[in-house]
Structure formats: structure tokens, C-alpha cells
Design goal:
Layout: H1 8-20, E1 28-29, H2 30-36, H3 43-53, E2 64-65, H4 78-89, H5 101-104, H6 110-116
Helix pairs in contact: 2-3
This protein binds a DNA duplex (13 and 13 nucleotides) through helix 2, helix 3 and strand 2.
DNA sequence: CGACTGACGCCGA
DNA sequence: CTCGGCGCCAGTC
């Protein structure tokens, strides 16, 4: 089958574009972002990018969680508190370092995927 | 060049 | 719910 090579720059580009598409008040998992970005199984890569993004105010990195709804940071850690504060500010409820995905998980419609993810 | 290391995920016990 | 194990891959050492 045809194997399309993607430059690390493009992967980077797709991941951020996907994260930016997450609506305020909603959250998505690393794996979900990877899938939507066309990088199935590359959840760790998404985490890598979020680490870079922590400096950039542009990317809503805090809307990205683990697949079970837990924050990626250790409870009580500085980063976890910071992320929790940002989420609560958007109306997302955080309990014990975790968010209920059935309540706040982002489930993009086909429409959103086609219009927001330009790749 | 091999080993180790992550803002991860899934499955089975 | 916890633990172990394996998959994944770009950096670091």
C-alpha cells in the first residue's frame, strides 16, 4: 500500500491544528487528537507537542487529557493545578484530577472535521 | 549504535 | 481499581 511520508513539521502542524479545533468547554484525549490528526497510535507524539506548546499561549493544550479523563499530570502537581484552573474557567468540572468524558468529551461532527481540520 | 525515557493507550489478570 | 506487559517513536545519553 502507498506509504505517505509526513515531515515532522507537518505532523507538528496537524496536531496543533487539531488541538486548536477543540471547542472551549470541551476536552479531548491525546489518542483522539492523534487519530484526528491522521496519526493513529501516536498519542505520545501529541504529548511531546503539548510540552512545546506550554510556552505558547496560542494552543489550548489544557483541553487535552488522558484517554480515561485524567489529567496527564500528577495530582497536586503545579502543572495539574494550573490546568485545572484553566478548565474550570471554561466551565469544565474537574474532580480528583479527572474530568467526566461523557459530559465534557469532544465528539466532533463530520462538519467540524471537514471545516476545521484543513488537511 | 543500543538503552532509556516520556504531558500515552489498550488488554488481560 | 491496580499491575504488568507491549506497542509506539523522537530524543538523549
Amino acid at each position: 500500500m502507498t506509504n505517505i511520508q509526513m515531515s515532522s513539521h507537518e505532523k507538528h502542524q496537524r496536531i496543533w491544528q487539531t488541538v486548536v479545533a477543540i471547542p472551549p468547554g470541551k476536552v479531548a484525549s491525546y489518542g483522539q487528537v492523534a487519530d484526528l490528526a491522521g496519526l493513529p497510535g501516536r498519542a505520545r507524539l501529541v504529548g511531546k507537542c503539548m510540552a512545546y506548546a506550554s510556552d505558547e499561549i496560542q494552543v489550548p493544550w489544557y483541553r487535552v487529557l488522558k484517554s480515561n479523563g485524567q489529567l496527564a499530570f500528577a495530582p497536586d502537581s503545579n502543572a495539574a493545578k494550573k490546568q485545572t484552573a484553566l478548565l474550570i474557567k471554561e466551565g469544565v468540572t474537574v474532580n480528583n484530577n479527572r474530568v467526566k468524558l461523557h459530559e465534557f468529551g469532544w465528539q466532533p461532527s463530520l462538519d467540524e472535521i471537514l471545516f476545521k481540520l484543513q488537511f
